Amino acid sequence: MNAPLRRAEIDLDAYRANLDLVREWMDPVELMAIMKADAYGHGLEPIALAAVDAGIRWIGVLTVPAALRLRSIGVGEDVHLFTWQHDPALDFRDAIDSAVDLGVSNVPELQRVIDAVDHRPARVHLGFDSGLHRDGSTPDDWPALVTLARDAQRDGRIEVVAAYTHLAESSDDEDAAAVALFDTAVEQAEDLGLDIPTEHVAASLAGLERKEFRKDMVRMGANLFGIPGADGVSAADLGLEPVMTLTASVAKTKRVPVDTGVSYDYTYRTTAETTLALVPVGYADGVPRLAQGRVEVAIGGTRYPIAGRVAMDQFLVDVGDDDVQVGDTVVLFGTGEHDEMTVLEWGEALGTIGEEIVCRIGTRVPRVYEGHRVEGHVAEYLRGER
């Protein structure tokens, strides 16, 4: 059967199954489904609507514009949308009016939120830096941030929803020390007269491996897309299902003689008379140039290595004397059930993580949503009704 030129198949059944499994693991702790980077490259709106249909009531989307996109397609205020990376010039009024939760990490940022408040209080999560050093208030600045938040809450300008931090996941001992530092910060806030109703600390890896770090809510991202973060642990090991399958079709084939140089710089030469198959996916679509010699793709259940440099728009595979035809389906990565590599294997082969691979897949690769749960809000969105 012929395949489209290129596409990313998104299995919403798999996403829902992962949601259900992770919620079971986390019970009774609340689950926040993280969907930054366009839902890890899977498409923010359909993934978010699928999560809402599944009963998820906390979604993390990194930025206010992403949260407002979800409000615009009908994700109601019964679903809390958490954002934590803000443009220094952002006007927070639309976010506040749309009940978007705002992670804030310093006094100037919180003051900008307070100044933007009009007819309803802003929902605020106070971020604390417990050692990752990319976000959150430092321990020295924390009392001033807490004091401003306390006074603004008493004035009805904000509602402090939570305090949060993010762990470096460097070692068990260092993570335990970070959580202890966060616990001290929460105690300090309460001593200053600010009640912290909710705490969230753990993301995907710590949420799975360190039950004592789950607090009131766990932020889960990669696991929900079937990409576990633990070294040497596959999705199948955990019962998770990969959500994205990246496919293309053979665009051209040609027979070439022995010792033919292939693609730029002739970094690959044929060792016999052979057939080359052109796959119309390149580094503009998210296939790294480093994939040569490290990644294999599957055609008809047989794996073939990428031959020669990956170009912007295509790469070649050496299929020998096998009967590979134009239009045959090429599976770059998927579930692994048909002998193709998984995204986790891609990450290992390329010295990175599976999350980076799926986030790299470019916008000219259409996302095609499949599964019998393409229904409810998702179906309305895909039909253009939202």
Secondary structure elements and their pairing?
Layout: E1 6-11, H1 12-26, E2 30-34, H2 36-40, H3 44-53, E3 58-62, H4 64-72, E4 80-83, H5 93-97, E5 100-104, H6 107-116, E6 122-127, H7 142-154, E7 158-164, H8 172-191, E8 199-200, H9 204-209, E9 217-220, H10 235-238, E10 244-249, E11 252-256, E12 261-262, E13 268-269, E14 274-279, E15 296-299, E16 302-307, E17 315-320, E18 329-333, H11 343-349, H12 354-360, E19 367-370, H13 376-382
Parallel strand pairs: 1-19, 2-3, 2-9, 3-4, 4-5, 5-6, 6-7, 7-8
Antiparallel strand pairs: 1-10, 10-18, 11-14, 12-13, 14-17, 15-16, 15-18, 16-17
Helix pairs in contact: 3-13, 6-7, 11-12
Strand composition percent: 15-25%
Structural class per helix/strand content?
alpha/beta
- In angstroms, what is the radius of gyration? 24 Å
Uncertain segments of ≥5 residues (pLDDT<50)?
none
The DSSP helix count reads: 13
Report on the biggest sheet. Answer: 9 strands, mixed
Number of strands: 19
Major beta sheet, strand line-up: 11-14-17-16-15-18-10-1-19
Euclidean distance between termini CA atoms:
33 Å
Oligomer state equals single chain
Task: Describe the protein's architecture and organization.
With 386 residues, this protein is α/β, with parallel strands linked by helices. It contains 13 helices and 19 strands. The chain has helices at residues 12-26, 36-40, 44-53, 64-72, 93-97, 107-116, 142-154, 172-191, 204-209, 235-238, 343-349, 354-360, 376-382, and strands spanning 6-11, 30-34, 58-62, 80-83, 100-104, 122-127, 158-164, 199-200, 217-220, 244-249, 252-256, 261-262, 268-269, 274-279, 296-299, 302-307, 315-320, 329-333, 367-370. The strands form 3 sheets. A 9-stranded mixed beta sheet has the order 11-14-17-16-15-18-10-1-19. The chain has an 8-stranded parallel beta sheet with strand order 8-7-6-5-4-3-2-9. It has a two-stranded antiparallel sheet with strand order 12-13. A hairpin with a 5-residue loop joins β12 (261-262) and β13 (268-269). α6 (107-116) packs parallel to α7 (142-154). The radius of gyration is 24 Å and the shape is elongated. The two termini are 33 Å apart.
